[in-house]
Amino acid sequence: MTSEKDRVLVIYHRADLDGQCSAALAKLKFPEATLWGINHGEEIPWMQIDAADHVVLLDFSFKDEDMQRITLLDKHFTWIDHHITSIEWAEKWADETASEALLRNDQVFVLSETHAACELAYMHWWGKGRPLRRETPDRPLRRETPDTSDRDFEGIAPGAKVKKACYPVYLLGRYDVWDLEADPNILPFQMGMRTQNLDPANYPESMEIWKSLFTGLAGHLEKDFIQQGQVVLNYQKQMNERLMKNAFEIDWRGERFLAVNGTEINSKAFETRFDPNIHDAVMAFHWDGETEIWRFSLYSPNQSVDLSPLAVDMGGGGHMYACGFQTKNLEFLGENL
Ligand SMILES: [Mn+2]
Question: How far, in Å, is the centroid of ligand 1 from the Cα of 54?
Answer without folding.
Answer: 22
